[in-house]
Amino acid sequence: MTQEYSRKETRRLLNIPERQLKSWEKQHLIPAASTYGFRELIALRSLLKLREQKVPPAQIRRAIAAISEKLSHVEDPLVQLKLYADSGKIHVEVDGKAMEAESGQLLLNFDQVELKRLLEFRAKDDPHAERRRRSEAERWFQRGLDLEQTAAPLEEVREAYDKALELDPKSAGALVNLGTLHFNARKWKEAEQFYRRAIEVDPDYALAQFDLANLYDERGDRAKALEHYSAALRLSPNYADAHYNLALLYQGANESMKAVRHWTAYLKLDGSSQWANIARRELTKLRRAAVLPGTRA
Questions:
Q1: Is residue 218 assigned to a domain?
Q2: Burial (Cβ within 10 Å: 0-12, 13-18, ≥19) of residue 8
Q3: What is the largest CA-CA distance in the chain?
Q4: Which pLDDT band holds residue 45 (cuts at 50, 70, 90)?
Q5: DSSP string spanning the chain?
Q6: Sign of torsion, CA 22 24 27 32?
Q7: Neighbours of 87 (CB within 10 A)
Q8: Is residue 26 in a domain?
Q9: Higher-confidence residue: 116 or 35?
């Protein structure tokens, strides 16, 4: 049976505001829906990536229309192909080759020998080398994500992220995902190193702070877990999962008022999931406990 996610679950999973979903629907980039399957999640992730790269919706529509015209066998470019932005243009990967989406012009596809040569160039020798490296790094990062989604062998996933880092040592996404691979293997030291490197290259990356907090929480280091969950919230005040985990930590430490504050904040951001039911139950417990002393008096 195909896994389906409600609209709210999808928004939470991909961290998409409701207004953004509605905007994409109005612009006919995605159909309006109440549930989403795996294919739709891929399309939404592609749109998110293009949005992060500041590609205007009109340009995305033109690119999709051009791809559909040039590649008649492709029914849904956002799902079936890998789209990414570079130098203000949308590129698409077709059969291992890069193509400008609107013009259809094939771009140079570097093999491993060529990539090694480019990595050895100095910026003064080739001012465009860094841009090409980052573009290729992004392609390897996306490949790592795709491999994870299809439950590929971990070695293949790790290799894709390693190649992304080889090309772009400041790829915070690759660093965080490598950290998570080590976290899931309970290799705490390695995971911590990757998370900290991600924070060093991108101090505003809330996910890196959150994942590092999860690591400390798992290891029982409450003080550091609180520090990094709080840092994630400073960077992203509407980070629902950070509110949830802080509420648990404060409740476990008998700091009821702080726990109530974070449970309440969490429920404002996510009031209908299975996790919201837990949050509501714990919040009710705390409020009853606060009333009981007065009742006995």
A1: no
A2: middle
A3: 81
A4: confident
A5: ----EEHHHHHHHHT--HHHHHHHHHTTSS---SEE-HHHHHHHHHHHHHHHTT--HHHHHHHHHHHHHH-TT-S-HHHHSEEEEETTEEEEEETTEEEETTT--B-----HHHHHHHHH--TTT-TTHHHHHHHHHHHHHHHHHHHHHTT--HHHHHHHHHHHHHH-TT-HHHHHHHHHHHHHTT-HHHHHHHHHHHHHH-TT-HHHHHHHHHHHHHTT-HHHHHHHHHHHHHH-TT-HHHHHHHHHHHHHTT-HHHHHHHHHHHHHH--SSHHHHHHHHHHHHHHHHHHHHHHH-
A6: negative
A7: 8
A8: no
A9: 35
Is residue 267 within 8 A of residue 280, CB to CB? The reply is yes
Mean per-residue pLDDT for 28-37? 84
pLDDT in tens, 126-137: 556 677 888 888
Q: Work out the pLDDT band at 254, boundaries 50, 70, 90.
A: very high
**Which of 9-23, 99-113, 169-183 has the least mean pLDDT?**
99-113
**Domain-located, residue 151:** yes
| Percentage of residues of the chain with pLDDT beyond 90 | 38
* Domain assignment present for 181: no
DSSP labels, 59-73: HHHHHHHHHHHH-TT
Which pair of tokens denotes residue 270? 């996510």
Which domain range does residue 140 map to? 111-169
- pLDDT tier at 217, thresholds 50, 70, 90: very high
